[in-house]
Amino acid sequence: MDILKTATDWVKSELFSTPFFILFGVLFILASIGFWQLGKTDMARAYIIPTLVAGALLMTIGFGLFFTNKSRITKFETAYNSDASAFVASELVRAESTLKEYRTIVFKAIPFIIIACALVIVFIDKPVWRASMITTIAMMVVILLIDGTAHARIEAYNQQLMSIEKELKN
Question: Checking CA distances to 159, which of 29, 51, 140, 167 falls within 20 to 30 Å?
Answer without folding.
Answer: 140
